[in-house]
């Protein structure tokens, strides 16, 4: 197997690991990546992630460090913070959280005490583990109560959310999740939070890039705290940010450091700064709107082929498909599509009678597809591949799956992915 020379030092020092990196580069190049939480970062973001900033410890915050030699590191972090504040229109930003789950844990540390009641969307309905779900530390250390979606519409019933909040009086209310295909009504959630004197946390990890690009309403005027990862639709490195009003700045910063973390990962901070700079450009606005346009067109194409979509479609980058009527489980479908070069993830659907590790649905998204330059004109073919792939997976037809994979590779050859070595 020949190896690309894109990582010559790695190849010389550790050929075994270099081979795995090369294999992943080929896999990301040759497959249609439809997992909505995945994307491609730019070469600039990749380069920033691998700089000598890796070599510095920087416990504390700019101007208030516990280590010397921070002359450049302070400027890097301040640049990332200033760019986050400008891009999202917030008063305060903390770019140090290592990832989304630690960022959410910092919110609990800042505003709640163990045993307090917290409220979020139930995991099987599309929420996140860290919104008080039982198997998470947030559900073990706090009293989690969950809202869901209506069985008939697949959408959040805000009257039910309000009734639950009035009954339970939570300290924190989370809005947002991991499998929500519809627009989040931040204003309505804020009104409910005010009524019960709760801190409203908008977890926008999935839609941060859409918000930055103006393709989804912003929580900034409504939420007390905004939590987000910096990858997914924002096309940055694997990191996170917490943003808030100035009145919460001290509590947030203290919770991140020293409450939960030691020194920040400075190379990641630099890559976040690059991604935020890229997201402030007009081209990113066009990208964010194209992500949504592609998702809506793909949803329509799937509906035309008789698929059942939770809530009947999408307003954002994400489609949640219920395969019950096809007689194929989500796991079987996802694994078959993977062999066909169409990468999705199996996922529970609201009120799913099946177990989470073998659920009824699959989750599909358009961020990575759009980053490759694919547009609305391509989604009919994508829907056809999904249709054929689900049927082939259910029937165990490996020949049909192989045929789809060849078609996928042929299309992607003409749409190279950002940040990957080009042959």
Automatic annotation (TrEMBL):
Residues annotated for (6S)-5,6,7,8-tetrahydrofolate binding in this entry: 123, 127-129
All copies of domain Serine hydroxymethyltransferase-like, residue ranges: 12-386
Biological process annotations from GO: glycine biosynthetic process from serine; methylation; tetrahydrofolate interconversion
EC category name: transferase
PROSITE patterns the UniProt entry points to: SHMT
Modified sites of kind N6-(pyridoxal phosphate)lysine: 232
Annotated pathway: Amino-acid biosynthesis; glycine biosynthesis; glycine from L-serine: step 1/1; One-carbon metabolism; tetrahydrofolate interconversion
Gene Ontology cellular-component annotations: cytosol
Protein family (similarity comment): Belongs to the SHMT family.
The protein, known as: Serine hydroxymethyltransferase
